[in-house]
């Protein structure tokens, strides 16, 4: 019985304290907000300017849309300012030092992102503010926003981007609302990894601008978001396959004419390179200002493969010239020098016939062999030039990546 009485006394005491504390909190809230208008900027004697301190944490890079040049981010924004109208003495209210109230109970600065393409700054007016007894207000909220980011694709897929994010008041000038940085860079400690992009750093700087339409200054805080693309996916799925396909074009010079596949192989290479070029083009913004070096590579190899196709057509045409007589000047100026350069043995028939019928047969065989030998020489010279030009072109293009 005594034990039950003891528990009853404890319960009544705790319940009474709870009611007392709740009553005190209601009295404090009523007293603080009795004459307060949240639509009016805080103004106190000697404190005309409201100082807003901002800190930014990047939670996630959700998407980087290169064709539309829009980046989508998940941000954590922390704002802090003083409101001299929201103060109280903690000793008068059971030592309560903080109040947590909905955003619409207090005045909040109209901070916005200048380069945002979103219809609204989600989160700024949807969470709760923490008010300290000395008038300090901390307003922390998450937001998902889309901002314009000019993309330079010259070095794609080894490119680096810089996307500035400008935060500032849309209506208040610097004389009424000043902004300051909590830190000189954004907080990346809670950043989630992105599969395509790295965020090495996000430095911040304060700007004070003065425009011709208004003599008062405007303050903004700019966070420069530096991005570095992870190129491994493109190396394995675009660059390496396209290099292999391009070098497969050399097989067209090695295939015998009798196979009938020399031209079809070169055409297949050109079509494959076109497919890869379209894949790259779908990932990039349409712009005349900056052409990606990877696109230059595809254009270069496409033109080279086109020239190779014409060479193969010429080789086949020469090979099947048959018994047509080769001009003497062509033998001296073209066939013999090319045969020496390419180390091709010219199977020229030099025997003389004893009668007219036999002589005609030997001459026909001799002319056919000459044309076939010339086609082999052109094939080998084309192979050497193709490898040299392709190697030099690849070195020049890929060494320009920075």
The assigned structural class equals alpha+beta
The name of the CATH topology of the largest domain is Acetylcholine Binding Protein, Chain: A
Number of domains: 2
Whole-Å distance between the termini?
85 Å
Helical segment tally?
7
Helix content: 25-40%
Which H/E pattern describes the elements? HEEEEEEEEEEEHHHHHH
Tell me the CATH architecture of the largest domain.
Answer: Distorted Sandwich
The biggest beta sheet reads: 6 strands, mixed
Can you offer a commentary on this structure?
The protein has 402 residues and is α+β, with helices and mostly antiparallel strands. Helix content is 40%, strand content 23%. It has helices spanning 2-33, 232-248, 251-254, 262-283, 293-319, 328-341, 356-398; strands spanning 50-65, 70-82, 98-102, 111-113, 128-132, 136-148, 160-169, 177-181, 197-198, 204-210, 217-229. The strands form two sheets. The protein has a six-stranded mixed beta sheet, with no helix packed on it. Strands 4, 7, 9, 10 and 11 form a five-stranded antiparallel beta sheet that branches. Strand 1 and strand 2 (70-82) form a beta hairpin. Helix 2 runs antiparallel to helix 4 (262-283) and helix 5 (293-319) packs antiparallel against helix 7 (356-398). The model is unreliable at 9-20 and 347-365 (pLDDT under 50).
């Amino acid at each position: 019985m005594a034990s039950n009485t003891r528990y009853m006394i404890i319960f009544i005491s705790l319940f009474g304290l709870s009611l007392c504390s709740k009553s005190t909190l209601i009295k404090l809230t009523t007293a603080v907000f009795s004459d307060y208008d949240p639509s009016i900027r805080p103004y106190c004697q000697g404190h005309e300017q409201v100082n807003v301190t901002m800190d930014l944490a990047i939670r996630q890079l959700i998407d980087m849309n290169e064709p539309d040049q829009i980046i989508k981010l998940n941000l954590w924004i922390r704002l802090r300012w003083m409101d001299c109208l929201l103060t109280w003495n903690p000793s008068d209210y059971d030592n309560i030092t903080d109040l947590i109230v909905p955003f619409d109970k207090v005045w909040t600065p109209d901070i916005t992102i200048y380069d945002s393409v979103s219809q609204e700054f989600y989160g700024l007016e949807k969470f709760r503010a923490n008010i300290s007894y000395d008038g300090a207000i901390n307003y922390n909220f998450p937001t998902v926003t889309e901002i314009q980011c000019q993309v330079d694709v010259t070095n794609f897929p080894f490119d680096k981007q810089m996307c500035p994010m400008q935060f500032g008041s849309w209506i208040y000038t610097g004389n009424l609302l000043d902004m300051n940085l909590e830190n000189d860079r954004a907080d990346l400690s809670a950043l989630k990894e992105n599969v395509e992009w790295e965020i090495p750093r996000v430095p911040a700087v304060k700007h004070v601008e003065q425009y011709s339409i208004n003599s008062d200054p405007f303050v903004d805080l700019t966070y420069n978001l530096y991005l570095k693309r992870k190129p491994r996916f493109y190396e394995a799925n675009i660059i390496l396959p396209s290099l292999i396909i391009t070098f497969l074009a050399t097989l067209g010079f090695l295939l015998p004419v009798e196979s009938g596949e020399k031209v079809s192989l070169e055409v297949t290479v050109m079509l494959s390179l076109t497919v890869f070029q379209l894949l790259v083009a779908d990932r990039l913004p349409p712009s005349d200002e900056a052409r990606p070096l990877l696109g230059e590579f595809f254009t270069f190899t496409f033109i080279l493969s086109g020239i190779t196709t014409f060479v193969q057509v010429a080789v086949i045409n020469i090979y099947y010239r048959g018994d047509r007589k080769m001009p003497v000047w062509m033998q001296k100026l073209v066939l013999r020098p090319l045969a020496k350069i390419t180390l091709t043995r010219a199977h020229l028939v030099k025997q003389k016939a004893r009668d007219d019928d036999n002589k005609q047969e030997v001459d026909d065989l001799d002319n056919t062999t000459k044309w076939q030998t010339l086609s082999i020489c052109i094939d080998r010279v084309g192979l050497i030039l193709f490898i040299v030009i392709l190697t030099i072109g690849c070195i020049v293009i890929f060494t320009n990546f920075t």
